[in-house]
Design goal:
The complex is a heterodimer. Chain A is of the alpha+beta class. In chain A, about 65% of the residues lie in helices and about 10% in strands. Chain B has 3 helices and 7 strands. Classes of the chains: A alpha+beta, B alpha+beta. The interface between A and B is large, with 50 and 41 residues.
């Protein structure tokens, strides 16, 4: 019964999304307040219906209803409850439902928190989002129905892929999807503005907090995925340039460019066309990511059993969305007009350079991801593009970007002076170079690559300090000065410091990590990175749905000082009978100790892989700091304060009355 | 500087950055492409000696032998075989008789030295490269058999 209710809710949701995409849009065209007024209630109803379908699927998982095909394929009665809940998005159909669920959630947020928007603008925004949800609901109902019944019902389920049975599965996909789908808001704002012909500073100010919120979610989502891959895959890597990772990284890069160009549009009214184009690009890349991951064209842990019909549907949808929005852009953009003029050296020109670099970076990832697929599809042979390509490309692209990150915030709008900037930043340059060399000297090895990476980190920190000092100097004391800084400004500085922490972590772990594969018998010892690892015992343990060989690895340092004991496991899951390595990690601020088990040899000895990874946690810490910076920026009172002011301006009143 | 000159400088500057960056990207791209070869192609000496490439096929049954952290095994497309040497821990789903993709360089002695071994992510899944190698070998086999049949006539 419950699955049927979910099914009915989905069908109703499709009908509502159809209404939502047509009626308010027509109302905005005819200036009919009653029709436009329907946008908000329809968005709420859509959220309730999709939410009901989502809960229905979750209930089927919790109740172990193996008469539902999707539940039977992705769950098992022995699966612990949190993973049965996460199992909802463990396969193709359910993750689409999650996608639509997130879209409905963002729509609800827009409907709730946009009281100040002119009615026609809000009507168009929600209608555009309604169209997107209509496309995805149709896709789900036609090709990938999560509620399909299985007759006769299965006695037990085929279990969730063991790789996915992890706390990361509970948090990573929802967060990532929040980010992906969040760019649909910026996209809808842009399309609405193009349709209404009102691309102005107001539009940029409305779009900014939404874009930053989506960017924050995407940042955290990518970070969670990276942490998960690090401890789960047992390879000790944190980023693999896997096509699916790239699929989430491209919208992130474009979104980062969008945030910066929105700043120019809001403050100076320039870059309007470019900003709109970026908003379209960011969301198109999100859709492309969905296509790549969900169509089965990619082979990775994220790809589910593929069905060509599905891939074709998403591809058609993708072409339609991108084609339609670019056509609209080509038609309306020439009427937008140029913004304020700016000098060759100014905050505007520096942010323009930032955008060019970020877009080139996006393009290089796109090339490396799509070209092999393209060749394969054309039958021209199989190639792959690995980490060496991305490494070679990213370092030279990111170095000037990070240099600009130091200069940009200090430069003046409209016209900046080179000598003045040089004087203000000379100490930052000296300090960063000295710190770079000193760190490497202390760590015991100086290389060019590390110098570049560490310099980036120290340069950001030093230039943020200069910027902060210049801004609080005029105040009577430091506390007052800090209090006077706008939250958005603090957010920017925090986010930039996050990049510094990230660059520091990456450089340190790259250069100074040690890795060792060793054959160990019980009571054998080996030394890695100044720590002594002793294999004390390996014994068999039982889990809820697996059996495991669990090792006891005692770690000591400097003679016999005990550090910790780690328990890595080699598991075999009963239903799918796959072996799985469960690495054990002792995490710390300055280093991680990482032990993962390989195979057992005929002699009874084990192959064990041991890593010493200095400062690896700074990578994710940096991402988290970036996200916190984003949250601060999005929560700036300016967005809310001016919003309430807007509500009383004649223009907004007119919009409300119209 | 007149506004027109300034705009021109901006555009030229932007294009210059874009050009340099594009050149860099394409150059890196060309240098780092990893091609794919089947065991049959390697035996036929079509694969390069000093360049990293990918080899795909099935792990031949009974061919895996370990010597501490060194592993030797044979990759086959059911038609031709290539010996592979690898140092380190194999992925969880590496099994005899199952699909595998190895990335590395071919030594002068004809042994493929793998830097990385990739296996499938779940039970029912075959790496596309491995599937491709089997498909090509099957086609080649069919052609040869057809040829032999002709000769017999």
């Amino acid at each position: 019964m419950i699955p049927e209710l979910g099914q009915i809710a989905l069908v109703l949701a499709l009908a509502v999304s159809l209404l939502l995409s047509a009626v308010p849009m027509w109302g905005a065209y005819k200036a009919d307040a009653a029709l436009m007024g329907l946008a908000r209630p329809l968005a709420r109803v859509l959220f309730v219906l999709i939410g009901a379908a989502f809960i229905a699927l979750m209930a089927s998982f919790i109740r172990n209803d193996f008469s539902v095909l999707y539940v039977a394929s992705n769950s098992n009665s022995a699966l612990p409850l949190p993973y049965r809940i996460a199992g909802v998005w463990g396969g193709h159909e359910g993750s689409l439902l999650l996608w639509v669920m997130m879209l409905a959630f963002w729509m609800l947020c827009v409907a709730q928190f946009s009281q100040h928007l002119p009615q026609a603008v809000l009507a168009r925004i929600l209608a555009v989002m309604g169209m997107i949800s209509m496309g995805f609901l149709l896709f789900m109902l036609v090709t990938s129905n999560p509620f399909e019944r299985l007759l006769p019902m299965a006695l037990d389920g085929r279990d969730l892929n063991p790789l996915l049975q992890d706390p990361g599965m509970v948090a990573h996909p929802p967060m990532l999807y929040m980010g992906y789908v969040g760019f649909s808001v910026a996209f809808a704002f842009s399309i609405a503005a193009l349709l209404g012909g009102q691309l102005d500073a107001n539009w940029a100010r409305w779009t900014r907090p939404w874009t930053i919120a989506a960017w924050v979610c995407l940042t955290i989502g990518i970070m969670l995925g990276s942490v998960w891959a690090y401890y789960e895959l047992g390879w000790g890597g944190w980023w693999f340039w896997d096509p699916v990772e790239n699929a989430s990284f491209m919208p992130w890069l474009a979104g980062t460019a969008l945030i910066h160009s929105l700043a120019v549009t809001e403050k100076r009214g320039s870059f309007k066309n470019w900003t709109v184009l970026l908003a379209i690009t960011a969301f198109s890349l999100s859709l492309l990511g969905t296509f790549l991951v969900r169509s089965g064209v990619l082979s990775s842990v994220h790809a589910f059993a593929s069905d060509p019909k599905r891939g074709l549907f998403i591809l058609a949808f993708l072409v339609l969305v991108i084609g339609a929005s670019l056509t609209l852009y080509a038609w309306r953009a020439p009427t937008v007009g140029l913004g304020q003029r700016f000098g060759l050296l100014s905050k505007e020109s520096l942010l323009l350079a930032n955008n060019v670099l970020l877009i080139v970076a996006t393009g290089s990832v796109l090339l490396g991801t799509l070209y092999p697929l393209f060749l394969d599809a054309m039958g021209l042979g199989k190639i792959s593009v690995g980490p060496p390509y991305f490494d070679t490309v990213f370092v030279p692209l990111m170095t000037p970007l990070v240099f600009l990150m130091g200069v940009g915030p200090l430069a003046r709008w409209k016209q900046a002076e080179l000598p003045e900037l040089a004087v203000r930043l000379r100490w930052a340059l000296v300090v960063s170079v000295v710190a770079t060399l000193a760190t490497q000297w202390l760590a015991g090895k100086i290389t060019l690559g590390t110098s570049v990476g560490l310099w980036m980190a120290f340069w950001i920190v030093a230039s943020v300090c200069v910027d902060l000092w210049d801004k609080i100097k005029p105040a009577s004391n430091i506390v007052n000065g800090l209090r006077k800084l706008p939250t958005a400004m603090i957010g920017m500085m925090v986010a930039h410091l996050g990049v510094a922490a990230f660059a520091f972590g990456v450089s340190m772990v790259r250069t100074y990590e040690t890795e060792r594969d060793v054959k160990m018998n019980i009571n054998d010892s080996t030394e890695v990175g100044g720590y002594v690892f002793t294999l004390r015992d390996v014994r068999e343990v039982q889990g809820p749905n697996f059996v495991a060989a669990r090792a006891e690895m005692a770690i000591t340092q400097g003679g016999d000082k005990p550090v910790t004991t780690l328990y890595p496991e080699k598991r075999v899951y009963r239903v799918q009978s796959n072996p799985m390595t469960e690495a054990a990690i002792d995490a710390g601020v300055t280093r991680d100790l990482y032990v993962s088990m390989g195979e057992q040899l005929d002699s009874g000895a084990w192959i064990v892989r041991i890593y010493h990874k200095p400062f690896v946690d700074w990578i994710w810490g940096g991402c988290l700091i970036m996200a916190i910076g984003g949250m601060l920026a999005a929560s700036d009172r300016r967005y809310r304060a001016r919003k309430t002011a807007d509500a009383t301006t004649p223009q907004a009143m007119k919009g409300a009355a119209a | 500087m007149t506004p027109r000159k300034k705009r021109l400088t901006l555009i030229l500057g932007g294009l210059a950055i874009l050009g340099v960056a594009t050149a860099l990207v394409l150059n890196a791209f060309q240098k780092n492409l990893v091609f794919f070869f089947t065991p049959s192609q390697i035996v036929a000496k079509e694969a390069p000696l000093e360049r990293t490439f990918r080899l795909g096929g099935l792990v031949e049954k009974g061919s895996v032998s370990r010597d501490g952290v060194m592993v030797n095994f044979v990759v086959t497309d059911t038609f031709r075989k290539v010996p592979v040497r690898y140092q380190g821990i194999l992925p969880d789903l590496f099994k005899e008789g199952k699909g595998v993709v190895a990335q590395g360089k071919l030594g002068a002695d004809g042994v493929f030295v793998a830097q990385e071994v990739l296996a499938k992510h779940d039970e029912n899944y075959m790496p596309p490269e491995a599937a491709e190698a089997l498909k090509r070998a099957a086609q080649a086999n069919a052609r040869i058999e057809a040829g032999q049949a002709k000769e017999m006539k």
